[in-house]
Amino acid sequence: MIPKIPLASWIESIVDWMSSSLSGLFKVISVVIQEVVGFFSGLFMLPHPLLFIAILGVLAFLVGRLPLTLFTVIGFLLVDNLGYWSQSMDTLGLVITSGLISILVGVPVGIWLAYSKTAARIITPLLDFMQTMPAFVYLLPAVTFFSLGVVPGVIASVIFAIPPTIRLTHLGIKQVSSELVEAADAFGSTSAQKLFKVQLPLALPTVMSGINQTIMLSLSMVVIASMIGAQGIGAEVYRAVTQLQIGKGFEAGLAVVVLAIVLDRFTQNLFMPGRKKTSRVSTKQKAWITAAATLLVLVAGFSQYFTGSTTSAGGNNGAANAVGKEVNYQIIGIDPGAGIMKSTAKAIKDYNLSDWNLIEGSGAAMTATLDKAIKNEQPIIITGWTPHWMFNKYDLKYLEDPKKSFGDAEEIHTIARKGLKEDHPVAYEFLKRFKWTSDEMGEMMIAIQDGTSPEQAAKDYAEKHADQIDEWTKGLTPVNGDAFKLSYVAWDSEIASTNLLKYVMENKLGYKVNALQVEAGPMWTGVASGDVDASPAAWLPLTHADYWERYKDQVEDLGANMTGVRTGLVVPKYMTDVNSIEDLETGASTSGSSSEPAANANVGDEVNHRIIGIDPGAGIMKTTASAIEKYGLTNWNLVEGSGAAMTATLDKAYKNKEPIIITGWTPHWMFNQYDLKYLEDPDKVYGDAEEIHTIARKGLKEDHPVAYEFLSRFKWTSDEMGEMMIAIQDGTSPEQAAKDYAEKHKDQIDEWTKGLTPVNGDTFRLGYVAWDSEIASTNLLKYVMENNLGYKVNALQVEAGPMWTGVASGDVDASPAAWLPLTHADYWAKYKDQLDDLGANMTGVKTGLVVPAYMDVKSIADLKDK
User: Fold this and answer.
1) How many other β-carbons are positioned within 10 Å of the β-carbon of residue 320?
2) Closest residue by Cα to residue 148 from 482, 481, 486, 483
3) Which domains does the chain have, with CATH numbers?
4) Strand, coil or helix: what is 786?
5) What is 526-595 written as a DSSP string?
6) Is the pLDDT of residue 654 over 50?
7) What is the DSSP letter of 680?
8) Which residue among 21, 23, 141, 268 has its CA within the 20 to 30 Å range from the CA of 292?
């Protein structure tokens, strides 16, 4: 007999080698994909949902007809109404990222295949392999290379979705008429001209069909990708399916349908010329609309650089107004609408500088212009403010302002939303104490300008000025909110335990917990590799025996968090005459079913010799197969499916009092919902009672001692878990169910957390304007609050208006970037009653016009014609 080819071990060896040898490459790919997905998701979440829907509606009207517009608007309004907006935007970001990668890689490869028969012979079988291999197979190597999360989801989606783009690009080019190609050759076309002017334009409909299929296949992967931690609408579908929540599953699935139809119709109408006849706008009109829109954007963007570019009458004033001539009567400003720009416009009016122009732009453009002028010792006038790194880097001076157009010295205030003192007293007190000087801030700003990241600059400053940091935080109780990741298998028991852990760790111990819903393999792999901190879902010694054997030296077993759990075959209790697996061949199913079987009825016949199981490959399925063999059940079949399918079959049979045999385990909500019993197992195929263990990555005890101790103490009973599971099954969200349980069992929670120092890592949001001073102060606040006080800080970079509005509305907790009383005077007048002023965190700041010191100009008055 020919020995089995050790293909599995070869593949594992290759994967292990790639994981160790190419880790650097995988890390780079991971970072790039993570950033791209985050960019798109953030972009889609940036506008208000209604505004985004309006934009999509306009686009739909331009590329299609009224029906597409109505479907797009109504569909996304429904998604928003159902509460799946953020998840859908995350999914859209994942789909677009995987689609872009597939297109950027697939189209060139397809062109290559069209030009190279050798490449086509080699790559075509690989495409067959990629398309026919079950998509689930891609998940584990993706996790091995890229850990858990959205990145392996994108990678798996690309592998699964890229073949149509390659195939149809290849096919489209090959189908171009040979006569046309020969004609192009006859006219002396180069290969590039032939490709881009003949073959690709003619092949475009076919190529775009491939791209359309790729996008649809990418979207079809969202549920599968959710199994390895890729969040989004797929996770909601997957969670609903595993919990037999038909309504929620339909809701989440409907969101996927909306995304799919909209993406399909958009790509068809935009890129598939054969279908454009149905569009309200012709191809030529679309081209004009696109050109006009592009021109409008370009004009709007570049108009600032031409404002005031011509020399006005003031340019003929001779030597008496040499300064104006030298700088072309221009004052280089920053963002239009900024407070300092309003003050400068006022100064131009106050000092009657009628010939002068204030050039709008940005802070970066202004400092770039300044740097160039400084290096060439050319005259320049800019709007300036202190603190700013340019005063540390260059020798600058302020022009005197006798008319006080720029007012007196300003103050940078820290403002906070109403109720902050009550909600976050530690943060409130810290922010009140936060005060430093422009020189101190300058240290950070110049470091950032020299290339140091803001995070590193903040850390360096805090380490250098430890005494100052200690003074700011003296007497404050640290909240120390370290981020913490939990992974879990989407079983009802683990959904309950994980959500309870998440609630307690966030609300009692202060961690910011990220709970990743994955399959068992990725769960163990993630903990073993250190990508996940812990999991409370390790079923030992039987169900997860294979994983334990493989990873036992790479994880720490913190002990059982629940005892007395069990697996086995389960039947309804009304099957009174079936009490043992041995009875499956000879016993009667019931003595009281509606069908009233004969006393000697064979239970195998009544259930069609079927045992309803769950997912193929699950530990209980392997044990059940062993039980079938051990007990000689030669005519029986173990039906593979899923936990949800099993419980749905059970529910139907139970309602009709029909006989049924299923695989079961405790804890499970079905034991609370239905009156069930276990079949005895005299041969102990299913072993004795199992234990659910909490496992943790190596080093957790040293990195997170409080969490480690808490997880070691975490133990509860199946009845206690059942309270949560049945609540979840009845429609309560896992988060609410965990909260309800914790409030009901306060003594138990207190016992788990007794004597542990809370880390209390509340999420804290800071808003700031993207000025160098505020980048410095905000990043310093962020570092201190995270490293000394334990908050998980989200620093939001916005414009001044949204910053004030966010604080006033409570969407942002605080901002250290309020310039008062002048620069932000309008915002202060509008919002002063809707927020708290915690006082100045810096005094002596100033705004005004700035020139290099070598310019012999002392006053704004000197700029006036004389």
Assistant:
1) 9
2) 486
3) 7-46+83-270 (1.10.3720.10), 48-82 (no CATH), 325-407+569-584 (3.40.190.100), 419-563 (3.10.105.10), 603-686+855-863 (3.40.190.100), 690-845 (3.10.105.10)
4) helix
5) HHHHTSS-EEEEEEETTTTHHHHHHHTTTEEEEEEEEEEEEEEEEEETT-TT--BTTHHHHS-S-SS-TT
6) yes
7) B
8) 268
Task: Dump the DSSP string for 44-68.
Answer: HHSS-HHHHHHHHHHHHHHHS-HHH
Which sign does the torsion angle of CA 660, 664, 666, 667 carry? Answer: negative
Sheet strands (E) in 6-125: none
What is the b/e burial string over 447-469, where b = at least 16 CB atoms within 10 angstroms of the residue's CB? bbbeeeebeebbbebbeebeeeb
pLDDT in tens, 723-744: 776 777 777 777 787 788 888 8
* Strand stretches in 68-154, DSSP E: none
Rounded CA gap, 735 and 87, in Å? 16
Output the furthest CA–CA distance in the chain (Å, rounded).
121
- What average pLDDT does this structure show over 587-609? 54
Contact status, residue 382 vs residue 331, Cβ threshold 8 Å: yes
- Residue 155: CB atoms within 10 A of its CB come to 25
Task: Report the number of secondary-structure helices (H) and strands (E) in the chain.
Answer: 40, 18
Whether 442 and 842 have beta carbons less than 8 Å apart is answered as no
Distance CA 777, CA 780 (A): 5
CA separation, residue 512 to residues 23, 35, 760 (Å): 28, 21, 9
Q: What is the pLDDT of residue 482?
A: 57
Q: Is the pTM of this model over 0.70?
A: no
Q: Which class for 666: exposed (0-12), middle (13-18), buried (19 or more C-beta within 10 A)?
A: buried
* Nearest residue to 470 via CA among 424, 525, 430: 430
Compute the half-sphere exposure of residue 741: CA atoms within 13 Å on the CB side of its CA.
29
Q: Which of 818, 824, 807, 813 is nearest to 841 (CA)?
A: 818
